[in-house]
């Protein structure tokens, strides 16, 4: 595989409870993969295992390198991670928040001119360069998501992991965030994100990974994975599926 992530036989347990069971899949460079599944299915745990925030069993290769054999600072250069949205407590300038993503390269040194220039470019890439001087605590939910995304991008990682990047956003800001992610993927970066909306997953993803009870039920193209039978098995609800202009739409039967 030319770049990306390869996960093989990944397992993880909290105390005596097994959370992830023999997870195996790959994500290629230039792909956006969405992880779907009900609450408690292991989506967030899987992202944390890939980033070694948790210590799983099994094999994780990034660009062909076993990440268990590299330092945390080198791992931060390979994988950018955006957790579920937090509430900012301090009025840092947006640009300073973004440039904090350069820490793996700076060590104990202060950011330099080139770090701030890179931060400005990443803010422009996600369409919020006009917010560079604004206090971080005065942003909307959608703007906060994009700032955290820009911070991950200044790490210049080839892999991005995003935990529910569209949660609690209105539909406009969801589309803004997902369009920004599509632009990032087109630069050859591999993106993995968790999501709850199968329609957004279908519209914006190259592949969908459907999880249930810590296992992968299906992995592949959205129209193959998001079948009526699979959704009924995972979510326990009946749905109708419609296709229009090449897109795949899923509606619950009430």
What is the 3D shape? globular
SSE string, helices as H and strands as E = EEEHEEHEHHHHEHEHEEHHEE
Major sheet attributes: 6 strands, mixed
User: Whole-Å distance between the termini?
Assistant: 43 Å
Proportion of helical residues: 25-40%
Mean pLDDT, to the nearest integer, reads 90
- Order of strands in the sheet with the most strands? 6-7-8-3-9-10
Q: How many distinct helices?
A: 10
Query: How large is the radius of gyration?
Result: 18 Å
Uncertain segments are none
Describe this entry's structure for a reader.
With 254 residues, this protein is an alpha/beta fold. The protein has 10 helices and 12 strands. It has a 6-stranded mixed beta sheet with strand order 6-7-8-3-9-10, with helices on both faces. Strands 2-1-4-5 form a 4-stranded antiparallel beta sheet, with helices on one face. Strand 1 (4-14) and strand 2 form a beta hairpin. Helix 5 (113-125) crosses helix 6 and helix 6 packs parallel to helix 7.
In short:
It contains 10 helices and 12 strands. 33% of the residues lie in helices and 29% in strands. Helix 6 (141-153) runs parallel beside helix 7.
Question: What descriptive keywords fit this protein?
Answer:
33% helix; 29% strand; alpha/beta; four-stranded antiparallel beta sheet; 254 residues; 10 helices
């Amino acid at each position: 595989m030319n770049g990306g992530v390869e996960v093989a036989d990944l397992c993880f347990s909290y105390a005596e409870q097994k959370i992830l069971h023999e997870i195996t899949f790959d994500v290629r460079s230039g792909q956006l993969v969405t992880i779907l599944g009900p609450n408690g299915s292991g989506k967030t745990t899987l992202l944390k295992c890939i980033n070694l925030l948790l210590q799983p069993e099994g094999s994780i290769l990034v660009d062909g390198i076993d990440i268990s054999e590299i330092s945390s600072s080198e791992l931060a250069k390979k994988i950018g991670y955006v957790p579920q949205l937090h509430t900012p407590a301090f009025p840092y300038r947006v640009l300073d928040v973004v440039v904090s993503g350069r820490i793996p390269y700076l060590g104990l040194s202060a950011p330099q001119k080139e770090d701030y220039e890179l931060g400005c470019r990443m803010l422009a890439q996600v369409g919020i360069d006009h917010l560079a001087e604004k206090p971080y605590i005065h942003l909307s939910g959608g703007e906060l998501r994009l700032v955290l995304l820009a911070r991950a991008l200044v790490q210049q990682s080839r892999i991005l992991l995003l935990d529910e990047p569209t949660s609690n956003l209105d539909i406009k800001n969801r589309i803004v965030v997902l369009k920004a992610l599509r632009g990032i993927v087109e630069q050859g970066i591999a993106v993995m994100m968790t999501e709850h909306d199968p329609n957004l997953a279908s519209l914006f993803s190259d592949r969908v990974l459907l999880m249930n009870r810590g296992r992968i039920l299906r992995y592949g193209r959205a129209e193959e994975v998001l079948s009526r039978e699979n959704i009924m098995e995972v979510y326990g609800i009946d749905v109708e599926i419609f296709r229009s202009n090449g897109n795949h739409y899923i509606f619950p039967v009430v």
